[in-house]
Backbone:
């Protein structure tokens, strides 16, 4: 089966096509056919500085948590004053939303052993990949409890109309539901979704289960296995087991 890509370079089965993404990353050519030169000016430097702040904030809040992490420590890590940092991010909440948005851009890596036991042409491979991308990300989240803590706090606070994170979370949840629903519709078309499962309902359920199990894990990590909870639910709607 050929690889079908959407506009982002993602394969229809949810796997990133590295070659396609590489093509998309090439700068557009000039009229003479030569690659366009990247401009570097105040805007580029400002963007780099902003990203450096976000990276430093990620490290601070991942290790210290939502309450203990501070603007002062982030500013020290990037070698600027708190006043200068406030020029880029006027509030702690806005900086933390930027941290979460940056985290969203990190793609999980498929477990190389996840396809063991499956023949190269096994029709279940797209379903196995879909499930593994989710469970792999859940395991990765367990390595940064501070970031998951700030996500849980901000997603709760974001329901208020005047919270700076409201738009981010509204768009994030809508995007996740749409992406998962589209993936599940493709799996349904391949005959890989259990009969009677509505892709839109299943998509919303995955998001709800993931957020809920993360919250329980934050309260009692020893008693809750996020990855297993998600894997077991996905096994109910997808034929992912090679046995």
Residues:
């Amino acid at each position: 089966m050929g690889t079908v890509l959407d506009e982002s370079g993602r394969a229809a089965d949810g796997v990133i096509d590295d070659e396609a993404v590489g093509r998309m990353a090439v700068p557009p050519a000039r009229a003479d056919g030569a690659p366009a030169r990247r401009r570097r000016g105040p805007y580029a430097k400002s963007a780099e500085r902003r990203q450096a702040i976000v990276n430093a904030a990620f490290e601070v809040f991942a290790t210290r948590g939502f309450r203990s992490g501070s603007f002062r420590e982030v500013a020290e890590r990037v070698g600027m004053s708190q006043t200068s940092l406030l020029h880029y991010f006027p509030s702690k909440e806005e900086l933390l939303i930027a941290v979460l948005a940056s985290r969203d851009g990190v793609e999980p890596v498929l477990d190389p052993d996840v396809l063991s036991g499956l023949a190269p042409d096994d029709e279940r491979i797209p379903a196995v990949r879909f499930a593994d991308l989710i469970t792999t990300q859940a395991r990765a989240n367990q390595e940064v409890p501070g970031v998951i803590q700030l996500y849980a706090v901000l997603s709760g606070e974001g329901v208020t109309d005047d919270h700076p994170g409201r738009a981010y979370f509204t768009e994030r949840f809508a995007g996740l539901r749409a992406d998962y629903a589209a993936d599940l519709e493709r799996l349904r078309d391949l005959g890989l979704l259990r009969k009677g499962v509505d892709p839109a309902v299943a998509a919303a359920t995955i998001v709800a289960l993931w957020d809920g199990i993360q919250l329980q894990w934050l309260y009692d990590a020893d008693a809750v296995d996020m990855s297993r909870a998600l894997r077991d639910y996905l096994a109910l709607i997808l034929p992912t087991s090679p046995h």
Q: What stands out?
A: Residues 42-68 form the longest helix (27 residues).
